[in-house]
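Rotation project, supervised by the postdoc (A.L.). Task for the rotation student: set up a whole-complex structure prediction and record inputs and outputs verbatim in this book. Inputs entered:
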Amino acid sequence: MDDVLRRGWRQFAAFSPGPAKDVRVFFAPGRVNLIGEHIDYNGGHVLPAALKEGTWVFARSRSDRMARFASFNYPKVVVAAIDGLTYRTEDDYANYPKGVVWAALCDQMPFAGADFLFVGNLPSRAGLSSSASIEMATALAVAALSGSAPSRLQLVKLAQWAENAFVGVNCGIMDQFAVGLGEAGHALLLNTATLDYEPVPFQTGDYRLVIVNTNKQRGLADSKYNERRAECEAVLAIVRDRMPAVRHLAELSADEWERCANDVESPAGQRRGRHVVTENKRVIDAAAALRAGRLPAFGELMNQSHLSLRDDYEVTGIELDTLVQAAWDVPGCIGARMTGAGFGGCTVNLVHADALVRFRDEVNRRYRDATGLTAAFYVSEIGAGAREVTEEARA
Ligand code: GLA
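Outputs recorded:
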């Protein structure tokens, strides 16, 4: 058994004494977004993939309408009555599972309380969706302990709603979707306007998916995320004056956008709109390139995506830009971009297997010189979506 799980069982037994047979274990992965950034709240296409790393939650039912939350990474046990849950800054990560319990009760799930222990191997606040991973693992646990059988999509929506309405981050649906519905070895081409999706085999031959962490933490809630979202809504309102039938910015073709762009007075608004429209096209082209095995074309679209996020959407910063520029300069790296919300967090790179050592050394050296920080490197694989793992966890 994995060390993480062994420690989990031990710690759970101390935290929540009782028969081991009543304990259930659920896993939800993190995700990396390959391309399609900041357009899931604009009705665009995105191409994320679930990781192998993620969050396990050990859970045991209670009948006293209390919930207790413990974690390897947080010293305090958070205890709360499940009726009347509220967001409390001092509860830290536990606000995510509290939000899911709150959302499940609003949804009339017959949940009566539980002890939860979270263990994980994802870097937190690094743009790899550790929060969506906690939310989806909790959502599976709460549904299972309640004896409810909602569809996977209902749980994805419940987790997103917990983050929007309870935590107060106006995120789109991409993260919870990728974490909840990911498939091993596949990226998901998701149309966020319709929620139609298609798993696209992620076959990269001699190239590896390398995630590089800036180790500059970013908080989604206190970043400019909600501000960007509001800017896009303002641009959409202007577009609708001319084209009332438009529902989402990302549905505009390049020509349609050209016709509307001059109506948007603010230069920043024009840049935001241009990012949304061009990024949506890049995602569709990238999925086609991946299906056809045209990896260099896929990598080039990743590069273009980064430039657009840097210059038009303005969500990068010195850490991400330095990592990406250094990556572009290493022979054998065919694509590099920031991933996730930006302002810190991680980059995602496609690097030839023979160039991995040089990539790590050169990128890290340039990053240290420019920022004084040390980056972390992970060669990643695409794993499956959230699931119950009680039997595997006992083995
Ligand atoms: C965060 C949000 C997502 C998405 C990305 C940016 O990860 O949770 O919904 O908007 O940022 O693409």
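Student's summary: The chain has a mean pLDDT of 96.
Supervisor addendum: The two ends are 7 Å apart (CA to CA).
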